[in-house]
Amino acid sequence: MLSKPAAAVLKIINQKIEELWEEEVSFLQKLGRYPSTLGKEATVQHYIADYLANDLGLRTETFIPDPKRLSKLPGYSPAEWSYAGRPVVVGTWQSTGPKIGKSLILQGHVDVVSPEPVSLWNYDPWGAVIEGDKMFGRGIQDMKSGIAAMIFALKAVKESGVILGADVLVQTVIEEECTGNGALAALDKGYTADGALIPEPFGLNGLTSQVGVIWMRVKVKGAGAHVERASQAVNAIEKAYHLIGALSEYRKLINKRPKHQDFAHIEHPLNVNIGMIHSGDWPSNVPSLCTFEVRIGFYPGQHPDDIKAEVTEWLFDAAKEDDWLKEVPPEITFYGFHAEGVSLDRDQPLFHTLARAHHAVTEKPLHSISTTATTDIRFYNLYYGIPATCYGPVGANMHGADEWVDLNSVKTVTKTYAVFLLEWCGIHTLPS
């Protein structure tokens, strides 16, 4: 059951969200038309900062993450690129009067993965095209729709005349898709609260567990030559096959081990994915170098350094089985994600409040899920003692062609977040 103050204003808040709906859809389309892939997040971030400051009246700050400072913090993931001109945005709605509730962070990430190959799309990946109840585009599901929902939830509360009993921070960060350093930078900057919600698109479910993730790069050397002397050369691509095969066996091994209890219901919870491979520059040359890059998952409670050591030993052992590789072993390095897994206690106020808000909007119980991916909630829960979870809209084809989000579910998330704000932060002043 909702608290009496929240129940009293629920109808008013829902009506305001309906009134703002066309504006929210237009805002989401605007976000979707910014091609905010890695390194190109600045324009959408400046747009959001301007919107938070001028349309919502929030005290807004933009700042550039400092990787040298962040590298000393738990949870940091090493990046091989510059942060220049790539801001994090934080808008603060400061409560007036005595604090009567709990403060909240609403966080979304603006970075999106590449839409390539675009030839596979039936829609412009940067067009934010609406067809029926769906909006299509790269990053529309993951997770610009969630950003629109969280911002308009706060806007509806604010424009309804409700004064909340605690501060609300609206944050849009960079690099959730590769390091999470944007979220870490905001926390290190001092932007903390009593709880956090991230509207990742998990289909109106609460997130209770996620795997850890590391990224690995493997360089394999061969002995190049013109193809006419191929019998005297060593093809680096073919030698890479041997190690890729070994990683396939490693994937089987880790999934045969006893499962973490949060993932016992998932047949194949740990993925080892060969995501990139580069080699050669001419069809008639035997390539002398092949580089492939890998994403490796592991369970909560395991440390990234232990997984790095295990997979490194696994590959070196595999290299010893090959006459060439045992003499010219691969070069193995790690960059990007060094992300620990997270397992959350469902019996805590954050989940109880989310469950009440979800039920108030949908009239259905809240279900929880474990994901075989990672999100930024790890920073809040593991390193800053801030309870955090994800709850976001319904969609499909995330990271694939024709990514889409269900707009009706975006409205549901907007309403749920608005109710959560009322319940979590408390109501200092009701609408007059």
UniProtKB/TrEMBL annotation:
Record GO terms (molecular function): hydrolase activity; metal ion binding
Known cofactor(s): Co(2+); Zn(2+)
Positions of the Peptidase M20 dimerisation domain: 209-322
Keywords: Cobalt, Hydrolase, Metal-binding, Zinc
Alphabetical list of Pfam families matching this protein: M20_dimer, Peptidase_M20
Keyword Metal-binding: yes
InterPro entries linked to this entry: ArgE/DapE, Bact_exopeptidase_dim_dom, Peptidase_M20, Peptidase_M20_dimer, Peptidase_M20A, YodQ-like
Record family assignment: Belongs to the peptidase M20A family.
Protein name (Swiss-Prot/TrEMBL): Acetylornithine deacetylase
Annotated source species: Bacillus taeanensis
